Amino acid sequence: MRVGYVQLKTVFGEKQKNFDKVSDLLKDVDDADLIVLPELFATGYTFTSIEEVESLSENNDGETSQFLQEIGKKTGAVIVGGFVEKFENKLYNSAMMVSKNGVIDIYRKLHLFNKEKIWFSPGNTKLKVNSIKGTKVGMMICFDWSFPEVTRTLSLIGAEIIAHPANLVLPYCQTAMKTRCFCNKLYAITANRIGTEKRGEDTFKFTGRSQITSFNGDVLSLAPSDREFVDFVEIFPNKTQNKNINEYNNVHDDRREEYYWNNL
Ligand code: ACM
Predict the structure, then answer these.
(1) Distance from the CA of 253 to the center of ligand 1, in angstroms?
(2) What phi and psi values does residue 236 have, to the nearest 5 degrees?
(3) Any ligand 1 atom below 6 A from CB of 113
(4) Distance set, CA 113 to CA 119, 126, 181, 249 (Å)
(5) Is any atom of ligand 1 closer than 6 Å to the C-beta of 107?
(6) Residue range 33-54, pLDDT digits in tens
(7) Ranges of the chain whose pLDDT falls below 50
(8) Residue 129, SS3 per DSSP
(9) I need a surface site. Which of 7, 42, 204, 241 has the fewest CB within 10 A?
């Protein structure tokens, strides 16, 4: 399976400009299976008012969905990318999984970071996997990495790959993902953005270093911290079905669930 990511310097509020950048970065790609784009890749991240968030929001049939379907047509891949979702009058920090035939699934970020708690409602979609060309793919968004429950749950429900759109500002995720992937024996594709966004009273510097991490903790691709970047690698999702670490240890079967939560 050929999987990859786009690391982007998003221009705040300029959806068409960001679509054009992604198209340009993927112009030579015509044979991929799965491509991950950053969190909120077409809108930017540093909002200054709810009205602004709302003005950039869409439903699952908006311009971002249409654009991702076009990219799916051109590349042959399923695309996962972040967008501002408006659903039943609420705003969510969401990711959509899209093929050339339309939207496959939507995930709403469960663990909101910093002022996202002002701009968005907390996610209300269950962690889930979808079968993409026979491979089970789950989604999480950026700060979800800080909650090991997310990767564990996705692993327990059969995820072989986690598509992980991100707008990382802390430096710890890439290292953590090696452990998350090793402990759950699955692949992850973390697509981050670069650049500094200074808007209103907030400034965020996004840390790049997008990463594809293997089920054994190896880093298969690592982007630079300061420029737009695209990379693809060949992976072997079947290998994630073996949850053994050695002859005696298995990351699922060795869990002692009856001792974990009972005395909280
Ligand atoms: C983040 O969750 N965007 C840091």
Answers:
(1) 32
(2) -130, 80
(3) yes
(4) 10, 19, 22, 35
(5) no
(6) 999 999 999 999 999 999 999 9
(7) none
(8) strand
(9) 241
